[in-house]
Design a protein that fits this description.
441 residues; mainly alpha; 25 helices; elongated
């Protein structure tokens, strides 16, 4: 019955066109390209008359035919209104559902498209046209829903939605990257790595995926693999300061300071007020023996962020290396005052406790440092920096054996290429050997 009504409506329009234009003229513009037909004055009269007739037809099919004529001419908004009127009059009109859903799909209004497809499927579940459109639209719908869910903090539900999108878009590098983001970086290294590798395989220029993959390798201590990914990421986006910073830190962990410094300097040039970049560069200057530049960097950080107790410790270490004992002690005391102020709110943050303990070590108040670190370790027993600080406290307390145990624990919790811990272990062993020699003699 519906098809018969549509055919009748179209026939009425055709006859109207013939009456208005004449047979010969109709044949003339019938064979013209669509764009030329729409601009033809006679055709415009015919089509306008045709639409008047359709608007007067009290059937859903009339509105549908009118919508189709609007859509053929590119008048999409008018077509949408007529498709909606069609469905208001007949909620079982499948072609209107499909046409309207397709428009929303093309507009990337995924939620609206999906809602219409679901309604159409409820009317006729085995329609092949509905199934085809559903397969096309499901990717965008589940991707958009997954992103919204992820932004709300529900990673598990977001991952489930992304996996549903993946069923329709298995070759989407973006989806593999998004799924990687739903895993815990501290616990799911290998699953994240697998998804990121697939994303990079599908799109070698996907620099966000490469940068994240570099972070995963960095966390695992595979700094050369991290360098490779960061460099590939920079090939696509050369001016991203975060990637330049990451590359510099990877080089630093490989003790390739000559490569680390230019990248860190460039990162800081892009973002001069970034305390993290400034601190990383100053630290590399210090480790490379460029103590004057390191001191300048740490003084700059104090100007930018005077409430950071850690930077006073760094500056104190430099002054101590330069033999400026009183100035070093002044910085450690400043670090103690800053750390105590930060803890005065009553929240005993483990990282702050470790920083404060480091300052007490610098001020040679080793027992206080030891007590603070032990408190921090009760709250966070897997912090390698805490064990390094505890080892320094034990050294000051003349207990190299306990210091060596703490350093071994720090090494077990750190990336495999933690050369600075290896150096500290070597020094602790030397100190322990000397102590044994003295006791034996």
């Amino acid at each position: 019955m519906i098809k018969k009504i549509i055919r009748t409506s179209i026939l009425i329009g055709f006859l109207a066109a013939v009456l208005l234009v004449g047979k010969n003229k109709w044949i003339e513009f019938r064979d013209k390209p669509a764009g030329d037909r729409f601009s033809h004055s006679s055709y415009r009269k015919a089509i306008d008359f045709y639409r008047k007739i359709l608007k007067a037809v009290p059937f859903a099919a009339g509105h549908y035919a009118l919508a189709e004529s609007y859509r053929d001419e590119g008048l999409e908004n008018q077509a949408v209104e007529e498709y909606k009127k069609t469905l208001e009059m007949d909620k079982r009109f499948i072609p209107a559902y499909l046409a309207l859903a397709d428009i929303y799909y093309q507009r990337e209004s995924h939620e609206e498209a999906w809602d219409l497809i679901q309604k159409a499927e409820a009317v006729m579940s085995n329609n092949p046209d509905i199934k085809d459109l559903k397969k096309q639209a499901s990717y965008g719908y589940f991707l958009e829903a997954g992103v919204k869910t992820f932004e709300k903090g529900d990673r598990l539900k977001a991952r489930a939605l992304f996996n549903q999108a993946l069923a329709s878009g298995p070759d989407s590098a973006q989806l593999h990257y998004l799924i990687a983001l739903t895993f815990d970086e501290q616990q799911d290294f290998y699953r994240i790595e697998d998804y990121l590798k697939k994303a990079v395989e599908l799109d070698p220029k996907f620099y966000l995926a490469r940068n994240f993959l570099g972070d995963i390798y960095f966390g695992k201590g595979d700094f050369q693999a991290a360098v490779d990914q960061y460099r590939a990421s920079l090939d696509v986006n050369r001016d991203d300061p975060s990637i330049l910073n990451n590359l510099g830190m990877a080089y630093m962990n490989l003790q390739r300071y000559g490569s680390a410094i230019p990248n860190l300097e460039k990162a800081l040039a892009f973002d001069p007020a970034n305390v993290e970049y400034c601190h990383n560069l100053a630290t590399v200057y210090r480790d490379y023996g460029m103590l004057d530049k390191a001191a300048e960097g740490f003084l700059r950080i104090i100007q930018l962020k005077p409430d950071d107790p850690n930077v006073y410790n760094d500056l104190g270490d430099i002054y101590r290396k330069e033999g400026r004992g009183e100035e070093a002690l002044e910085q450690y005391r400043a670090g103690i005052a800053c750390g105590k102020k930060a803890l005065s709110g009553g929240v005993r943050d483990p990282s702050l406790l470790v920083n404060l303990a480091y300052a007490y070590n610098g001020a040679q108040e080793f027992q206080t440092a030891k007590d603070l670190v032990e408190e921090a370790l009760r709250k966070n027993p897997d912090d390698p920096q805490a064990y390094m600080t505890l080892a320094d406290a034990y050294k000051g307390l003349k207990r190299p054996d306990a210091a060596l145990i703490a350093l071994d624990k720090a090494k077990s919790l750190s990336p495999k290429n933690s050369f600075f811990i290896d150096e500290a272990i070597s020094l602790a062993k030397e100190q322990l050997a000397k102590q044994k020699q003295l006791s034996d003699s």
